[in-house]
Amino acid sequence: MVESIIKSFDIWTDAQGVKSKGRVKSIDNISLEGIAHLRKLILELAIRGKLVSQNPNDEPASELMKEIGKEKSKLLTEGKIKKQKVKSNEHDSTLNDRLPSNWITLPLSQVFDVRDGTHDSPKPVQNGYPLVTSKNLSSGKLDLSDVNYISERDHRKIIERSKVDKDDILFAMIGSIGNPVIVDTDIEFSIKNVALFKYYNKDLSSPKYLQLFLKHAATELKEKALGGVQSFVSLGILRDFNFPMPPLAEQYRIVAKVEELMALCDELEKKKTDSLKTHQTLVAALLQTLTAAKDAGEVEAAWHRLAPHFDTLFCTEDSIDQLKQTILQLAIIGRLVKQDPADEPARELLKKIAAEKEKLIKKGKIKKEKPLPALRDDEKAFMLPKGWEWVRLGDIAQLLGGFAYQSSKFVEDSRHQIIRMGNVRPDFLRLNENPVFISENQANDTSEYKV
């Protein structure tokens, strides 16, 4: 299984997606989707017992659990931990059937001491103890560079229920659910809206295996999350969540193999990203040969040099966007098509527009406006072809800012629709998007704003 994945790495790396909503505008918003799915698959195989071979000489997980149970009972007797309520899990037997025979499945709270931090908002102070929240886990590592500080009194109150020690695991419970991190510092701090996974005996657990399991489980936990605008996962859900536990020796082998494969993913991701950046730079440089051309003839010659390599150059959304922008730029600066000396020059067209404008003023259809100042030389961004003219938009078109219609006067039964900002999209109007209408009388009163 692992060997076949490695052999197919090139196929995985070819798949691309978009990191955030909207169209790709730069290399920074490109997600190597294939590698992202590959990482998920590696974690899936790891927690299903399919990533490394089982060793019949390993002590079964059931025996490991007996040792953990003894440690847990000891801590309960000593009053160092409190007994946690766990709901029965009807899926245990089904999941066990799909796992190796020397694995077991138990709720997380039977294997680990699962707690959470405060859900209050202690008053910030200038100097004190760091208060860690989900934002301090978002990078995948514990980041104390941007924290609020709380008083020693508030800190002592919080750590009565959730004292954090080195090698414990933190897990964001609200907002960006997940991002499990292993605590790698001895600095004392408190936690808010963050789950805390502690060990009944650290020698009987592999923190890194628990961390990779929680990374995998985060997707399902997000689906179980409660709340509206800001989702959260409850402590009860975390405590009851199924944990597939391998023998301890196998946990360490799984971690080693996952780290090996993830490092390979990192390397491939960097190579692919570097390749995409190089491609983007090459496309930009070659398209510049078009915009640098002196006239349409030179543009045509430059394009003939690029055209044989079209499929290689314009194979990503970003490169296609660059090409579109270049075409628009060439059109605006007068180098997309050749000029015809027989065409009537723009100077004559401007005279005709001015004459039509004067007629509309005389008929009272538009108001006479103060003449606009002539364009200065420093306002002219580029040299125009012969026959073109620089003008201000107000000289050739009437610009209106729209009318501020009151929503209280909107009606339902009318043919006069109001176009609002929400209806305007690049290159088209979305008239079915929350349409609103005005009455016939109001449409007549504001007829100068009719489109």
How would you describe the overall organization of this protein?
The strands form 6 sheets. This protein has a 4-stranded antiparallel sheet with strand order 4-11-8-9. Strands 5-7-6-10 form a 4-stranded mixed sheet. The chain contains 16 helices and 16 strands. The chain is α+β, with helices and mostly antiparallel strands. The model is unreliable at 15-31 and 89-94 (pLDDT under 50). Helices cover 42% and strands 12% of the residues. Among the domains are: 59-246, Adenine-n6-DNA-methyltransferase TaqI, Chain A, domain 2, CATH 3.90.220.20; 346-396, no CATH class; 407-449, no CATH class. The chain has helices spanning 2-7, 9-14, 33-47, 61-77, 92-97, 108-111, 152-162, 207-224, 235-240, 248-291, 296-306, 310-313, 317-332, 346-362, 393-396, 440-445; strands spanning 17-18, 30-31, 104-107, 112-116, 124-125, 129-132, 148-150, 169-172, 178-182, 190-191, 194-199, 242-245, 416-418, 424-425, 428-429, 436-438.
How would you sum up this structure in a few lines?
This protein is α+β, with helices and mostly antiparallel strands and 451 residues long. The protein has helices at residues 2-7, 9-14, 33-47, 61-77, 92-97, 108-111, 152-162, 207-224, 235-240, 248-291, 296-306, 310-313, 317-332, 346-362, 393-396, 440-445; strands at residues 17-18, 30-31, 104-107, 112-116, 124-125, 129-132, 148-150, 169-172, 178-182, 190-191, 194-199, 242-245, 416-418, 424-425, 428-429, 436-438.
